[in-house]
Amino acid sequence: MGRLSECFRALRSKGERGLLPFVTAGDPDLELTEALVLSFAEAGADAIEIGVPFSDPIADGPTIQRSSQRALAAKTSLRRIVELVARVRPKVDLPLVLMGYANPFFAMGEERFAAIAAEVGVDGVICPDLPPEEGEVFYAALESRGVDPILLAAPTTSAERLEMLAKRTRGFLYYVALTGVTGARSAISSDLREGVARVRSVSDVPVCVGFGVSTPEQAREIASYADGIVVASAIIDRMERVEDRSEKVDVAAQFVSDLKGVLRRG
Which of 194, 191, 158, 151 is nearest to 175 (CA)? Predict the structure, then answer.
């Protein structure tokens, strides 16, 4: 059983919901990214998403676009990110998931990336612009090496396709909370509960909700029907408001701690 499957098995046994905070690797540099990953683990995160910056992140809103631009300006590459994972893996036992677009993975080579990811301790990969029909070779290469290919579903996903995604994803199903790009929102869609229930009707795969979750109150609401919450833009927004590097880490870690407190009680 991989780290992600074990993570959600343990959470379900405790009646808890998972928290998956996101950080863009290299924003503003990889040294700070490493500090954030370690601080998120200490603050109570259940798994951590590490974003691979890309020049045209079509699924991401302004906040993550800015973070990707800063990371690319710092010469962050996929090679340097897997080296980062190799450094932090001995210090962090949590699942580490890479979230990025197809181009960097394909540029490294599908088989080569899958082998390197498994070697350094990557537990899962999310690729928003690579549907399973077009990513069969890539996803098979990951799965054959014990790295979970994590698929996405959205409120617009048909019932037939939702069943296929729920069966083919590994680790968890990433359920997009809204029809649009990432970014903190003041309210959660009233249809979200129904959407997660649609997944439940066809599979018992863990479901994690992302895109737009920005407050502990929203996390508490989603925790009543989902297995986990992904929080990205709201963390980066808070970091952008402060200049001091150590304060960025402290602010982000405190927010992660606040969110996990709600999910633990949930």
Answer: 151
Exactly one of 49, 123, 148, 221 is catalytic; name it.
49
Task: Please tell me the distance from the alpha carbon of residue 91 to that of residue 64, in angstroms, as a whole number.
Answer: 26
Contact in structure between 220 and 266 (CB atoms under 8 Å)? yes
Region of residue 28 (left: phi > 0; alpha: psi -120 to 50; beta: else): alpha
Write out pLDDT tens, residues 158-191.
Answer: 999 999 999 999 999 999 976 544 444 444 656 8
Pairing of strands 173-176, 207-210: parallel
Per residue in 83-108, pLDDT (tens digit) is: 999 999 999 999 999 999 999 999 99
CB 252 within 8 A of CB 228: no
- With a CB cutoff of 8 Å and minimum separation 6, the contacts of 77 are 104
**Could you confirm whether 60 is annotated as catalytic?**
yes
Whether the ω angle into residue 95 lies within 30 degrees of 0, i.e. cis, is: no
pLDDT in tens, 67-83: 999 999 999 999 999 99
Catalytic residue of the set 16, 27, 34, 60: 60
Q: How far apart are CA 37 and CA 49, in angstroms?
A: 9
Q: Where are the domains of the chain?
A: 3-265
Rounded distance, CA 261 to CA 44, Å?
8
CATH number of 3-265: 3.20.20.70
Q: How far apart are CA 69 and CA 61, in angstroms?
A: 12
pTM of the model: 0.93
Q: Is 49 a catalytic residue?
A: yes
